[in-house]
Specification:
The complex is a heterodimer of chains A (about 110) and B (about 120).
Chain A (H helix, E strand, L loop, with lengths): L4 E3 L2 E4 L5 E6 L6 E7 L6 E7 L2 E5 L6 E5 L5 E5 L8 E8 L7 E2 L3 E5 L1
Parallel strand pairs in A: 2-11
Antiparallel strand pairs in A: 1-3, 3-8, 4-5, 4-9, 5-6, 7-8, 9-10, 9-11
Chain B lengths: L4 E3 L2 E5 L4 E6 L6 E7 L5 E8 L4 E4 L2 E6 L4 E6 L8 E8 L11 E3 L3 E6 L1
Parallel strand pairs in B: 2-11
Antiparallel strand pairs in B: 1-3, 3-8, 4-5, 4-9, 6-7, 7-8, 9-10, 9-11
The chains are: A mainly beta (about 110), B mainly beta (about 120).
């Protein structure tokens, strides 16, 4: 158990809808990163938040957005869902200067 | 895009045997990490090796890093059925922000099956 919790664990949406995924980071961690993992692939970096500010972004369109709250929990929002957005979305927390990431169990999104 | 490539893509061994997985990457790195994932669940950090290190051990795990060849290997000794999982290498470099954490770039993973 890493202490990182994500919700919901599974959800099904249709094309064009919007989704919000939530993450509570491990106690004492001030940085949250989000990754997308398509079936059979490795995780791909979406973005990272440090002290409530976006602090690095991967090759994802602007319809992927996020927030980090004062308690360091975080949300990932995806607008105008596409079929290719179907994936496991992983949240990971860490503390400044630490290389190790602590992952949650993920939210599996299916877009029909 | 994915920086690392693990080899082999799949590996099946008997319990008690050693398992070796390899990872190659393309650009310079600050460190390289190995993670494990059970059946599409969350990733668990196994070991981190810095660019100025050549070998590191943790329990039954041994990791080597050759920066001249841009490659790493993960050795699991005396494997157990519970080691069955996918193993990913991840590199950190280039996008380091200096403000906390940093971006990891993962490979596609090696799927290890340990037969009892």
């Amino acid at each position: 158990e890493t202490g990182v919790t994500q919700s919901p664990t599974h959800l099904i949406k249709t094309r064009g809808q919007q989704v919000t995924l939530r993450c509570s980071s491990q106690s004492g961690h001030n940085t949250v990163s989000w990754y997308q993992q398509a079936l059979g692939q490795g995780p791909q970096f979406i973005f990272q938040y440090y002290r409530e500010e976006e602090n690095g972004r991967g090759n994802f369109p602007p319809r992927f957005s996020g927030l980090q709250f004062p308690n360091y929990s975080s949300e990932l929002n995806v607008n105008a869902l596409e079929l290719d957005d179907s994936a496991l979305y992983l949240c990971a927390s860490s503390f400044s200067g630490s290389g190790e990431l602590f992952f949650g169990e993920g939210s599996r999104l299916t877009v029909l | 895009s994915q920086q690392g490539e693990e080899d082999p893509q799949a590996l099946s061994i008997q319990e008690g045997e050693n398992a070796t997985m390899n990872c190659s990457y393309k650009t310079s790195i600050n460190n390289l990490q190995w993670y494990r994932q059970n059946s599409g669940r969350g990733l668990v950090h196994l070991i981190l090796i810095r660019s100025n290190e050549r070998e590191k051990h943790s329990g039954r795990l041994r990791v080597t890093l050759d920066t001249s060849k841009k490659s790493s290997s993960l050795l699991i000794t005396a494997s157990r059925a519970a080691d069955t999982a996918s193993y990913f290498c991840a590199t950190e470099g280039g996008a380091y922000s200096g403000a906390g954490s940093y971006q990891l770039t993962f490979g596609k993973g090696t799927k290890l099956s340990v037969i009892p």
